[in-house]
Amino acid sequence: MQLDFMVVFENLMGLFLLIAAGAASVRLKLISPEASAHFSALLMKVTAPCTVFISLVTKEYDPSFLGDSLMILATGFILYPLLQFLASRCAKLLRVPQGKRGIWIFGCTYSNVGFMGYPVCLALFGPEGLALSVIYTITFNLYTYSLGALSIASYSGAAFEKPPLRKILLTGINAAMLLSLIFYFGQIPLPQLIAAPVTYLSNVTTPLSMFIIGMALGNSRGMDLLTDKDAWTCTIFRLLICPVLVLFLLRLIPYRNPLALPVITVTMAMPVAGAAAFLSEIYHGNLNMTAKISFLSNLLSLVTIPLICLLL
Asked: Which has the closest alpha carbon to 177: 53, 68, 80?
């Protein structure tokens, strides 16, 4: 599949202008940085679940989509442990300090599939691409709060308490995902009275997620974040090495759906997962390193995502 570079660039520029609006709002003190927590809660608990739900419910029914979904799930179940293993080996080779190593491994492995992955996949591949991205997120959610959390906690020096299974599974997004699959494969029609407000809320997800990322960047001190060698190596691995490696591996798999390969690759090309800060806080990870890789990966992804798309 070959994507038109100008179409990719224009769509991404639109998203990054929304990020710039969020950053400017904080810098100009139009909005308090503390508002980000409330916006994030609105996104994760309300608008993102609506996006996940409506992306499948409004999709034209195709019995073969079940096969596509199983292939994508199998891919995710294999990819994440593989990438985390490779990241841990690279951390040793690059002599990443113990205090930074946990979040370095996490940042290399887990991308921002929700805040940025959904909007970008929707912009580049339409509702079909978003639906595939939603399916892929199932494995992301399972591994982020288990293997991902373990990588952070293992180098923190603090006792690691495994997250309860209900905390991993019982989220608004997972509930919306399950409900949408029931509606989709059960071919249950959604009344317009419900579809309309859910769609309105869904439409808020993309601008809100970009705005929140911008707020985080606007509250960062850029020059302090640009001089850390380990932050740079983590960012390069996350934005370039990881998606290129994934693309190479996925080309060995005979996907029936031509969107599967580009959707997974682009999803894996996103910046560091937003859960990095949350998990670092809980499991005593290096919050300073978390801020640096989040800032750098979000900033440089404006250049690297179009480059990765050129390879598709």
From this structure: 53
Residues 130 and 284: their CA atoms lie apart, in Å, by 34
Residue 286's nearest CA partner among 238, 228, 217 is: 228
With respect to residue 29, please indicate whether it lies within any of the assigned structural domains. Answer: no
Length of the chain: 312
Token representation of residue 229: 């060698």
Closest CA to 96 of 236, 273, 274: 236
Q: What is the mean pLDDT, run by run of 10 residues, along the chain of 312 residues?
A: 64 77 88 82 83 80 83 93 95 91 94 81 84 86 81 70 61 79 85 90 82 74 72 95 95 91 94 78 76 82 87 84
Question: Partners of 272 in the beta sheet?
Answer: 111
Our measurement of the distance from residue 161's CA atom to the centroid of its chain's CA atoms, rounded to an integer in Å, reads: 24
The answer to whether residues 172 and 49 touch, using CB atoms and an 8 Å cutoff, is yes
CATH number for the domain harbouring residue 152? 1.20.1530.20
Rounded to whole angstroms, the Cα distance separating 42 from 44 reads: 6
